[in-house]
Amino acid sequence: xxxxxxxxxxxxxxxxxRVVSDLHLGHERCEAPPVAELVPLLKGIRHxxxxxxxxxxxxxxWQPRGLxxxxxxxxxxxxxxxxLIELAGNHDPDVIPMVAALWEGQTIIMHGHAIFKEVAxxxxxxxxxxxxCRSLIEQYPDADSSLEQRLELARAMSQLTAPIxxxxxxxxxxxxxxxxxxxxxQRPVGIIWGWLISAxxxxxxxxxxxxxxxxxxLGHFHRxxxxxxxxxxxxxxxxxxxxxxxxxxxxxxxKLIRYAKYTTLN
Length: 266
Fold this sequence. Notes:
Elements lengths: L5 E4 L6 E5 L26 E5 L11 H17 L3 E5 L11 E4 L4 E4 L13 H4 L2 H9 L8 H14 L12 H10 L3 H24 L5 E4 L6 E5 L2 E5 L10 E6 L2 E7 L5
Helix pairs in contact: 3-4
């Protein structure tokens, strides 16, 4: 496998690694504070891993602001001597690493979009482009057995279609909100279905590609929570997004030592 797809990290004993995801900097529905106010996120840690969708970097109206805010956040981390590790999500597929493997694979961190071959089967991009998406999936016949193909498929699927500006021309905020949440009708059903099966799908993914892992930290589903499958803990860090709650996960010496809302850091 191309090593660039996986970022290997073995922190020093006692070092804390913090994980967040889905800041969606630049997106119109992002509810992260200004970058300069994210300093509490960096206190007391040496490494910060952003598990995908840190900013909107695909070609769209949000891209310029997303790229500018990403540069600002990178500079903030440098100024506070925090090692920032970025992982690719479906909204920032230009990032190279897609998985972080800590403590020789005991802990795996990823965005989570590779769990579904469709990446986000509830999204407008997928629902409006099913034929081309399905054709792309057929080009990766070994994606059920090859981690490299599965990750490459996730990146290719994320790049296949530009983000759809779902509510262009609609000024009424209530109508815009309705359009986002309930149109087309398959969308809310798909979102709920994705929430219900995400943890089990994630555990199956780990059994296939990282069977010895004890922890998985991910995002993507914008639904925070923790689940236990045997001796494996799965934690989702939610999102800095409307109708979602941002969580963070702290790891130390191979163990998940803290999982809490971002507001507890203030």
